[in-house]
Design brief:
The complex is a heterodimer of chains A (267) and B (282).
Chain A (H helix, E strand, L loop, with lengths): L15 H4 L2 H17 L3 H18 L3 H6 L5 H13 L5 E5 L2 E4 H27 L2 H12 L9 H31 L9 H7 L1 H24 L18 H22 L3
Antiparallel strand pairs in A: 1-2
Chain B lengths: L2 E10 L13 E9 L3 E5 L6 H7 L8 E6 L2 E2 L6 H7 E4 L12 H11 L4 H14 L15 H13 L5 E5 L7 H18 L2 E5 L3 H4 L4 E6 L2 E6 L1 H4 L3 H6 L6 H11 L11 H13 L1
Chain lengths: 267, 282
C-alpha cells in the first residue's frame, strides 16, 4: 500500500522541457514567480496564463496530473478565497453578520486563487520534467558561489540526494515492519484518529532505530570510498548550457520585462 | 610477490568509558597477505574477523601493533586516503552502501571523490559495470535490483577506484544461494583476470574452497592458516573453533571412520563423488 507514494514526482520524457538544463529550469521558475507576483490586472494575468499553457504544451505533461497536484492545497485555496472575498474593505455588495462581500473582495479573491494555482502548477511542471538528481545537481551548481561564504552547499545537496535515495528503501522497510506488527495482531486501520496515531508508535520506533543504524553504516561505507567532502570532487555528469537554454532564459526575461511594463500602466 | 597487507602483532579494543575494562577484540595478529592472492577469513561470531577486516582499509586503527597496506601505515592520518584508494571494502548490507539513486552514479561515487576527470570516470564506470556483468543496468534504480545484483553494483563501485585489493566483509551473508554464487563468481574472476587481491570474510565454509589460503580466527587470534585442502579437512579442530567442515568433508570423514578407504581432501561435490566411486570400485 505504501508503494504508491511517489515523492519528487518525475515523469520521464524527452520533450524540450525535459532536455533543458536543470539550472535553466530553476532560474525560469524564479522568473515565473517574480512575474506572477508582479502581475496586477487582467492583461498581465492573461499573459501569465498563456506562458503557463505554452510551457505545459511544450513539456507534454498531462494537464490532469498537474491538476491532481493541487489537491493537497485545496484547503489553502478555499481559505484564501473566502478570506479575500469577505474581508476586503471596499464597496459593499452584501452584508450578513461578520461577512462583508465587496466588489474589491471578488477581484482580489479571483486573483489570489489564480496566483496560487498557477504558482503550484508552474513549480510542479519543473519537478515533473526534471529528475531529482539533476535537480540537486542544478541547485548545487546554482548555489555554488555561496560556498565562498562558507555555506555548506555541497553537503546540503549530498544530503538531499541521499534522502531521495533512501525514500524507497525506508518505505520498503516500513512495509516490512507493518507486516511484522500485523502478524502479531497490531491494528493500524480501525479506531479513532488518536487510536490510529498511537498504533503508529510501534511502527515508528523500529523505523527510526533502523534509519540511524543505516545512516551510520552508510557513513562508514562512504568514507571507505574515499569521500572527504566536496573539495577536489569531480562529476560523472557535468552540466552544460546548450542553445535552447539561452533561448529559454531570454524568453523568461522578456516575459518578466513585459509584466513589469504592464504593471506600470496598471494593466 | 609483494606484500599487499601486513599486520604486526595487531591488537585492538573498542573505545570504552574510563574505568571500565577494555576487552581486546584482536590479540596479536601477525599476518602477511600477498598481492594477487585470494584469502578467505573464517571464524564464528565474535572471533574478531570483521574487526580484522576493518583494519585493512583504516576504517579502524590499531590500539597496539601496526598495519601496513602497500607500505603505508594505517595509523597515520595522512595515509588514510592512500590506504582506502588501494583497499576497497564491500559490506554486508547492500542497501546501506549504495549512495546514489542511479546505478552508474553510484559506481562513479568513488572516482568522483578521488577527483578523477569526467571522461575517465565515464570509462571506469563502463568497465567496472562490465567486469561485474551489470552493464545493462547502468541507468536502473538500485532499490529495484536483487540482493546479488546490488552487491555486484557495490563491487563495481569499489573496482571503479582501481584498488589493488578488495575486502568483502560478510558481503554474502544476507544473500540467497544464487546471489551468493553471483558475488563469488564475480570476485573470483576479478582475482584471476585483473590480479586484484581478494580477502573474503565469511562464515560459509563452502566459500573457503575457492581460496588460495584460508585463515581461521578465534577469540582475536589466528587459529589456523593454510591452503583450503589442509584447513577444511581438520574436522575436529574446526569443530573446537565453532565451525563445521564442508558437507563433502563431513561425509568422507564419516565414511573413513566406518573403515572406508577415502581421503578427506575433496572440497567439491565432484571430487567427493570420485572418491566414493574409487572406494566402491576398490
Amino acid at each position: 500500500m505504501l508503494k504508491d507514494i511517489t515523492l519528487g514526482q518525475y515523469f520521464p520524457g524527452n520533450s524540450v522541457a525535459h532536455r533543458l538544463d536543470p539550472r535553466t529550469k530553476l532560474l525560469m521558475v524564479v522568473a515565473y514567480i517574480v512575474a506572477l507576483f508582479s502581475a496586477v490586472w487582467v492583461v498581465s494575468y492573461g499573459l501569465m496564463i498563456l506562458v503557463l499553457a505554452g510551457c505545459i504544451a511544450v513539456s507534454r505533461v498531462p494537464v490532469k496530473s498537474l491538476v491532481r497536484g493541487l489537491k493537497p492545497v485545496l484547503i489553502i485555496l478555499v481559505f484564501t478565497g473566502v478570506i479575500n472575498l469577505f474581508w476586503t474593505p471596499g464597496e459593499s455588495l452584501w452584508h450578513w453578520w461578520v461577512f462583508n462581500l465587496t466588489r474589491e473582495g471578488i477581484q482580489r479573491a479571483i486573483f489570489m486563487v489564480l496566483r496560487i494555482t498557477m504558482l503550484i502548477m508552474g513549480t510542479f511542471l519543473m519537478t515533473y520534467t526534471t529528475s531529482p538528481i539533476r535537480l540537486t545537481d542544478g541547485l548545487e551548481s546554482l548555489l555554488g558561489p555561496l560556498k565562498k561564504l562558507h555555506l555548506p552547499i555541497h553537503e546540503l545537496s549530498m544530503m538531499m540526494s541521499i534522502a531521495l535515495r533512501f525514500i524507497p528503501t525506508l518505505i520498503e522497510e516500513t512495509d516490512k515492519i507493518m507486516s511484522a506488527q500485523k502478524a502479531r495482531g497490531a491494528d493500524f486501520e480501525s479506531g479513532s484518529v488518536l487510536q490510529r496515531a498511537r498504533a503508529m508508535i510501534p511502527l515508528l520506533v523500529p523505523l527510526f532505530i533502523s534509519a540511524f543504524r543505516r545512516a551510520d553504516e552508510l557513513a562508514v561505507a562512504m568514507e571507505c570510498r574515499c569521500y572527504h567532502g566536496g573539495k577536489g570532487r569531480t562529476k560523472l555528469h557535468v552540466l552544460r548550457y546548450q542553445g535552447i537554454d539561452y533561448a529559454a532564459l531570454f524568453l523568461s526575461l522578456v516575459v518578466v520585462a513585459a509584466v513589469f511594463a504592464l504593471r506600470r500602466f496598471g494593466l | 610477490m609483494n606484500d599487499m597487507i601486513q599486520t604486526k602483532s595487531l591488537t585492538f579494543h573498542y573505545p570504552v568509558e574510563e574505568g571500565e575494562p577494555a576487552p581486546d577484540v584482536l590479540r596479536g595478529v601477525d599476518l602477511t597477505i600477498e598481492q594477487g592472492s585470494f584469502v578467505v577469513i573464517l571464524g564464528h561470531n565474535g572471533s574478531g574477523k570483521s574487526t580484522l577486516a576493518k583494519h585493512m582499509n583504516a576504517a579502524l586503527v590499531p590500539t597496539g601493533g601496526q598495519v601496513l597496506v602497500d607500505g603505508y601505515d594505517t595509523a597515520e592520518e595522512e595515509n588514510t586516503l592512500e590506504v582506502r584508494r588501494r583497499v576497497g571494502m564491500v559490506f554486508q548490507n547492500p542497501d546501506n552502501q549504495i549512495v546514489a539513486n542511479v546505478v552508474e552514479e553510484d559506481v562513479a561515487f568513488g572516482p568522483e571523490n578521488l577527483g578523477v576527470p569526467t571522461e575517465e570516470i565515464a570509462r571506469r564506470v563502463r568497465q567496472s559495470l562490465q567486469a561485474v556483468g551489470m552493464e545493462d543496468f547502468a541507468l536502473h534504480a538500485p532499490h529495484l535490483l536483487s540482493g546479488g545484483q546490488k552487491q555486484r553494483v557495490a563491487i563495481a563501485g569499489v573496482i571503479a577506484m582501481e584498488p589493488m585489493c578488495i575486502v568483502l566483509d560478510e558481503s554474502t551473508a544476507m544473500l540467497d544461494p544464487s546471489g551468493r554464487r553471483e558475488v563469488l563468481e564475480t570476485v573470483q574472476r576479478l582475482n584471476r583476470e585483473k590480479g586484484i587481491t581478494v580477502i573474503l570474510i565469511t562464515h560459509h565454509m563452502s566459500e573457503a574452497a575457492y581460496a588460495h589460503r584460508v585463515i581461521v580466527m578465534d577469540s582475536g587470534r589466528v587459529a589456523m592458516d593454510g591452503p583450503p585442502a589442509e584447513i577444511l579437512t581438520q574436522v575436529d579442530r574446526l569443530r573446537q573453533l565453532g565451525l563445521t567442515a564442508p558437507p563433502t568433508v563431513l561425509l568422507l570423514s564419516a565414511l573413513q571412520k566406518d573403515g572406508w578407504d577415502v581421503s578427506l581432501d575433496a572440497l567439491t561435490v565432484e571430487d567427493c563423488a570420485d572418491q566414493i566411486c574409487r572406494a566402491l570400485g576398490a
